[in-house]
Design a protein that fits this description.
Order of helices and strands: HHEEHEHHH
Helix content: 25-40%
Strand order of the largest sheet: 1-2-3
Number of helices: 6
Structural class: alpha+beta
């Protein structure tokens, strides 16, 4: 879900912890490339941001269900959001990502 949906709700706690669990589903905060806040903040990670904020102000910060993150990384932010809005299942989204459509 995009930041405008989660940032001003009870889900906003995710910004402090890098994610949240809701009804057993784990959601992670990711940047526009699908890199999690944990990876951006971990000094031993390839994606570690050495200076400044992990996700700069004004950049997209989406809350993505953990099992959708590989799809998000492969297809990109816009395409993944469209698939979710269109009601595409995770299995179908994975198939689309695998085929590179």
């Amino acid at each position: 879900m995009t930041e405008e949906y989660w940032a001003n709700s009870y889900l906003s706690i995710a910004r402090y912890y890098g994610g949240i669990k809701v009804n057993g589903d784990e959601y992670k905060l990711v940047n526009k490339e699908g890199v999690t806040l944990e990876e951006l903040s971990n000094p031993s990670s390839k994606q570690y941001v050495k200076s400044g904020k992990a996700i700069p102000p004004g950049e997209p910060a989406d809350l993505v269900r953990k099992d959708w993150i590989p799809v998000y990384r492969k297809l990109g932010r816009g395409r993944t959001i469209k698939l979710v809005r269109d009601g595409v299942s995770l299995a179908e989204a994975k198939r689309i990502a695998k085929e590179g459509k």
